[in-house]
Each structure stands twice: as structure tokens, then as C-alpha cells.
């Protein structure tokens, strides 16, 4: 017997779920094509160097050696391959791209998480204006209303906010990293212990409530106004609030902020946005601005905003009815092939009955609860149920 | 919907119930649970799910529960990624490196270390610049140096009594351990008000407890 079990963290997809997934991807692709996005499909295999900027601390990649003994990986991320693609293909910018594909990250074994995940996403490259972020936020809002009854809550932040405050506070790199890690994880006992040394500083009032500064944007705004913020941090905060205000005016859109959340990846350089739903334990949408990304692949930086959509999560939550339409059957003989071809074009919903004889075909149709047709001598359909 | 709290059953459960009661939470169901594993408070604010420590982290990571009450030893060993809200200052104990009297910490060569906590052990020896062979042991770790399976052990101890009774000596003190209140990071975003209200009530109780000691 051959080994029949799957490698850990993988799964087969079939039946209604697979069909729903295809429908969902079709819907998203149609939406993006209608808005003039260009599709990009990159290979599943890339050289490891492409992902040098990717945070692999928590996740491992599948690595292989090519025939030159160079390490190639199954891509753990789909944005960096697009950056690699743009740097080598001389495409005219600005331009909007989209992708749909699988990414591979090895989750802790036996954790119930899958190592192969389908992601769709957009990359808006060459636009420095905030309108690029607006386009992403509009897309999340549209998909939320269309697929999730408008239940997506948006969470806004800025990848620079934490560093800006910590740089004003200290020049000790190790301490700043430790505070940042504690903030990202909202590890309050450790965070409070780390900031206790700044008790005399005017910023301490802010530091004390910082990990709790998340949730409804107006409530967070009121809390920040009480303790005060100054300098560049204040500018960034006002920018986040400005976006929150604009976005809250979209139909069925609840907007939150988180002033201490980790950006989706290290390479983010500006506004970040994530979309989540009540009682779902992960984000469904995640993105932001990363203006320096292309500089790692070419000499010229390009402003860029992008967003990923967790297709596997979305399939489980989206209101899409899988096509459960029953198909009537057509019984035929191989000699009627040319005629069958014409009938199939005329009636695309008709399914060919592959049963050996009419009696078996009738029994099959009866068990499926559908009609059975056959071709008469004139080549017309007649009921044979 | 009540907040779901995975509570480590056994010693942690016993030490945490008085804190929960002092914070105004009805624990009568928890105290008379018999063999039940899921217990709601009478006001339906909370639902306690009794589980083993490592499973508390699994439930937290999957989002099956909103909160977990579990030892920091398990959180570190399982590389906790969820939000740690409060040190409940119960279940306090200490990680130690222990062995028989003839153990020489500075002896050249690769040591063999027995432990229930391979990650914590690896991080400790890495911090010392030492490469060691780690053997994972599920219970009675103290046996490992006594029967010649390992040169030393890394384990937690509360009073040191079991070590002493087995003629083992402490050669180094590692991290301190205590019970923590942890929130699933997405639950925290979705139920911040209720979760912080509970954390703040418990913090007050913990502070009062420390002050009265």
C-alpha cells in the first residue's frame, strides 16, 4: 500500500466548499477587473532572497535546493514576489495590480492551522496620494457589504507611530525593541515594568494607557486628548483619525483604531488597515502603505499601497450560496455524438447520463430526483424518466 | 454571550477561585462542579472551561475561548502570542537548574539535560553560550540525574522540598513563574470593555492581597 495520509497542515478541497471558493475568487476577480486592475500571477517557487524583508520569526518556510544548489522557497507572502516582478519587467507605472494565489507558511505542528493558504490581494504602485489608501478601504467596505452583510470592522493604525514615540523616549535600541514587542503582544505586566523607568517623563501619562488605546476611534481620540501628544507622533495620530473619520462615513462601516498594533509586515511605512469580524479569531483583510519596498529590488523607490484578503477565512464566513442546482440527465448512445454536441450547446444545463443502459439511467435519475431525457429518431429530446 | 474563560484545572483553579470571588464573580458553580468541564456563572457573564495548562494555550490560540488563566511556564514554553493582561501572583514558583552533588557546571563537554520544558531549557543554555543535549521528560523529572539519564534537570520548584528529598541541589535560578490572565488578541479587540473590567477588578484584588501580606 502507498502512504495515503497528507503532510501535516495540508488539506484536500472538494465539493461545496471548493465550489464556494471558486465562486468567491471569481467574484473578487470580476470586481477588480471592472476597476481596471491588471492580474499578475507569479510562480509558487522563488529564491529565498526575495523574502529577506519578510518576518519569518514565527513561521517557517518550505525550502528546497534547485539544481545549482541555490535555496528556493515556496512563497510565504505574495507582495514581495510582485515587488520582484515589478523590478524586472519594466512595466509602466503608476499601475494597479491584483493577484490570487497560495502562500506557504509552516505553522506550529499539530496546532490545527493550515500551511497552505489562499490569498487574494491588490498592489497599487506609483501613487503617493492618500487616494490609494482610500481605494483599498473602499474595496474592503464593498466586499464587506456584498459578502459579509457589512459586518467587517476596520482597524486603522500607522506603522511609524510606535517607532516615532519610542525614538523620542530613548536611544537604547534593546529597550525600544523590548517595549515594542510587549506592545505588539499587549503583554501588560512586562510592558508596565519596562516603562516604569520613564515615570518622571511628561509622556508617561500616555505611555501608561498606550496598550489600551484601541477600539472605537472617537473613544480613543477622547482618551488621547486627555493625556496629550506632541510632535510627529501627534501628526501621525491626527492622520489616523482623519482616515477614521472619512472611513466612518462609508455605509455600514464601523471604524476602530489601534495605536499599538503590529503592522502586518516589517516593510510597512505608513497607514495600516485591517478588517475583522465579531467572533472570528483572525483578520480577514490586512494591508497598508510600503513606500520603500521596491527599493530592495531596484535603485528607484516607488510609493505603494497593498492589501491581502484571506480567501480561506472569507469562504467560511461569506454569504455565498454554492450552486446546488440539480441537473436533468440526457441518455445517449455513442453513435449520437454529433447530435449530442448540438443538444449540449442548446441546453448547457443538461448533464450527460453515462449509465450503461436506459434502465440504469432511469434508476439513477429517479434516485437523484431529476428528469431523464433521450434523443428520439428525429433527433429531438423526449422525456424518458 | 458570556465571556469564555479557559481555567487550568487543579492547583491553579483552586488558587484562582478566591481571587475571582473577591472580584465579585460567583464561583459557586465552579466549587460544586463535580465532573462538569463547562460551568456558567449564575449571571451568565462568564463561562469557565476547565482544561489542562497546555490546552488553555491551544484554546486561546484558536480563538475557542476569550480568556485563559494559565502558568507563565506554559506560556513561555508554548511561545504565547496572545495578550498577557495580568500577573495574578498565585502559583508562584521558580525555574531551577538542579542535579546531584557531584555535578560540575563548568565541566567541559556537552551536557545532557532532562526537562519538561525543552524550549525554556534551550533558551537558558543559549543565553550562556552553551550547546546541550535536551531530553524531554513528561513526569518526575527529578529521576533523570538519579538514574543516569541526564547530567542535570531544568524544572520548576515551589519550595525545593522534592529536590531536597531526592538529594538534588540547585545550581542556578532561572525565570520566576506565576499564573497569568491572558486574552485572545482578537477577543480583546471585540470585547475590550468587559475584558478590561475583569482584569481591573482582579488587579485590585491582587494588589490588595499583596498589600496585606
From TrEMBL, chain A:
L-histidine binds at residues 77-79, 119, 123, 267-268. Keywords: Amino-acid biosynthesis, Cytoplasm, Histidine biosynthesis, Ligase. GO terms for cellular component: cytoplasm. It comes from the Bacteria. Pathway: Amino-acid biosynthesis; L-histidine biosynthesis; L-histidine from 5-phospho-alpha-D-ribose 1-diphosphate: step 1/9. It is found in: Cytoplasm. Coiled coil: none annotated. One of its GO terms (biological process) is histidyl-tRNA aminoacylation. It holds the Pfam family tRNA-synt_His. Heteromultimer composed of HisG and HisZ subunits. PANTHER family: ATP PHOSPHORIBOSYLTRANSFERASE REGULATORY SUBUNIT (PTHR43707:SF6), HISTIDYL-TRNA SYNTHETASE (PTHR43707). This is ATP phosphoribosyltransferase regulatory subunit. It comes from Liquorilactobacillus vini DSM 20605.
UniProtKB/TrEMBL annotation, chain B:
SUPFAM superfamilies: Periplasmic binding protein-like II (SSF53850). Gene3D superfamilies: Periplasmic binding protein-like II. Pathway: Amino-acid biosynthesis; L-histidine biosynthesis; L-histidine from 5-phospho-alpha-D-ribose 1-diphosphate: step 1/9. It catalyses: 1-(5-phospho-beta-D-ribosyl)-ATP + diphosphate = 5-phospho-alpha-D-ribose 1-diphosphate + ATP. GO terms for molecular function: ATP binding; ATP phosphoribosyltransferase activity. GO terms for biological process: L-histidine biosynthetic process. Coiled coil: none annotated. Pfam families: HisG. Its EC number is 2.4.2.17. Belongs to the ATP phosphoribosyltransferase family. Short subfamily. Heteromultimer composed of HisG and HisZ subunits. PANTHER family: ATP PHOSPHORIBOSYLTRANSFERASE, ATP PHOSPHORIBOSYLTRANSFERASE ATP-PRTASE. This is ATP phosphoribosyltransferase. It comes from Liquorilactobacillus vini DSM 20605.
Amino acid at each position: 500500500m502507498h502512504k495515503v495520509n497528507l503532510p501535516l497542515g495540508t488539506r484536500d478541497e472538494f465539493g461545496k466548499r471548493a465550489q464556494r471558493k471558486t465562486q468567491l475568487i471569481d467574484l473578487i476577480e470580476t470586481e477588480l477587473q471592472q476597476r481596471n486592475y491588471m492580474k499578475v500571477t507569479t510562480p509558487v517557487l522563488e529564491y529565498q532572497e526575495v523574502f529577506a524583508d519578510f518576518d519569518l520569526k514565527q513561521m517557517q518556510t518550505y525550502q528546497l535546493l534547485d539544481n545549482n544548489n541555490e535555496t528556493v522557497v515556496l512563497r510565504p507572502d505574495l507582495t514581495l514576489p510582485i515587488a520582484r516582478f515589478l523590478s524586472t519587467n519594466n512595466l509602466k507605472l503608476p499601475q494597479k495590480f491584483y493577484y490570487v494565489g497560495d502562500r506557504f507558511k509552516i505553522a506550529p505542528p499539530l496546532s490545527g492551522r493550515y500551511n497552505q493558504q489562499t490569498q487574494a490581494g491588490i498592489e497599487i504602485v506609483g501613487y503617493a496620494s492618500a487616494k490609494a489608501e482610500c481605494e483599498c478601504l473602499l474595496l474592503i467596505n464593498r466586499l464587506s457589504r456584498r459578502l459579509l452583510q457589512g459586518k467587517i470592522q476596520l482597524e486603522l493604525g500607522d506603522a511609524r507611530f510606535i517607532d516615532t514615540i519610542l525614538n523620542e523616549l530613548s536611544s537604547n535600541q534593546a529597550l525600544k525593541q523590548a517595549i515594542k514587542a510587549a506592545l505588539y503582544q499587549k503583554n501588560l505586566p512586562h510592558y508596565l515594568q519596562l516603562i516604569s523607568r520613564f515615570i518622571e517623563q511628561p509622556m508617561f501619562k500616555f505611555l501608561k494607557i498606550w496598550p489600551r488605546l484601541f477600539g472605537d476611534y472617537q473613544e480613543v481620540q477622547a482618551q488621547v486628548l486627555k493625556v496629550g501628544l506632541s510632535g510627529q507622533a501627534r501628526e501621525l495620530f491626527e492622520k489616523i483619525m482623519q482616515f477614521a473619520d472619512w472611513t466612518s462615513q462609508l455605509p455600514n462601516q464601523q471604524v476602530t483604531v489601534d495605536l499599538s498594533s503590529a503592522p502586518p509586515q516589517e516593510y510597512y511605512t505608513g497607514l495600516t488597515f485591517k478588517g475583522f469580524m465579531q467572533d472570528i479569531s483572525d483578520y480577514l483583510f490586512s494591508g497598508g502603505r510600503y513606500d520603500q519596498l521596491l527599493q530592495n529590488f531596484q535603485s528607484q523607490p516607488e510609493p505603494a499601497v497593498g492589501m491581502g484578503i484571506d480567501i480561506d477565512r472569507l469562504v467560511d464566513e461569506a454569504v455565498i450560496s454554492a450552486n446546488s442546482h440539480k441537473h436533468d440527465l440526457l441518455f445517449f448512445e455513442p453513435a449520437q455524438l454529433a447530435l449530442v454536441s448540438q443538444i449540449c450547446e442548446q441546453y448547457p444545463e443538461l448533464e450527460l447520463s453515462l449509465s450503461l443502459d436506459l434502465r440504469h439511467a432511469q434508476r439513477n435519475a429517479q434516485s437523484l430526483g431529476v428528469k431523464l431525457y433521450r434523443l428520439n429518431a428525429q433527433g429531438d429530446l423526449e422525456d424518458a424518466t | 454571550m458570556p465571556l469564555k474563560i479557559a481555567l487550568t484545572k487543579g492547583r491553579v483553579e483552586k488558587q484562582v477561585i478566591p481571587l475571582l470571588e473577591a472580584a465579585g464573580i460567583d464561583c459557586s458553580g465552579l466549587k460544586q462542579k463535580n465532573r462538569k468541564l463547562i460551568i456558567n456563572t449564575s449571571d451568565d457573564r462568564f463561562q469557565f472551561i476547565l482544561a489542562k495548562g497546555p490546552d488553555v494555550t491551544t484554546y486561546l490560540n484558536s480563538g475557542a475561548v476569550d480568556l485563559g488563566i494559565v502558568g507563565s511556564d506554559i506560556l513561555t514554553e508554548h511561545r504565547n502570542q496572545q495578550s498577557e493582561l495580568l500577573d495574578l501572583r498565585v502559583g508562584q514558583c521558580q525555574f531551577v537548574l538542579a542535579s546531584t552533588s557531584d555535578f560540575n557546571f563548568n565541566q567541559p563537554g556537552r551536557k545532557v539535560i532532562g526537562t519538561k520544558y525543552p524550549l525554556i531549557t534551550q533558551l537558558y543554555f543559549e543565553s550562556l553560550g552553551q550547546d546541550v543535549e535536551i531530553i524531554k521528560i513528561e513526569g518526575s523529572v527529578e529521576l533523570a540525574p538519579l538514574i543516569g539519564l541526564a547530567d542535570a534537570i531544568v524544572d520548576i520548584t515551589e519550595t525545593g522540598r522534592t529536590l531536597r528529598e531526592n538529594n538534588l541541589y540547585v545550581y542556578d535560578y532561572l525565570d520566576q513563574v506565576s499564573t497569568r490572565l491572558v486574552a485572545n488578541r482578537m477577543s480583546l479587540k471585540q470585547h475590550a470593555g468587559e475584558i478590561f473590567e475583569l482584569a481591573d477588578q482582579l488587579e485590585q484584588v491582587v494588589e490588595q492581597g499583596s498589600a496585606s501580606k
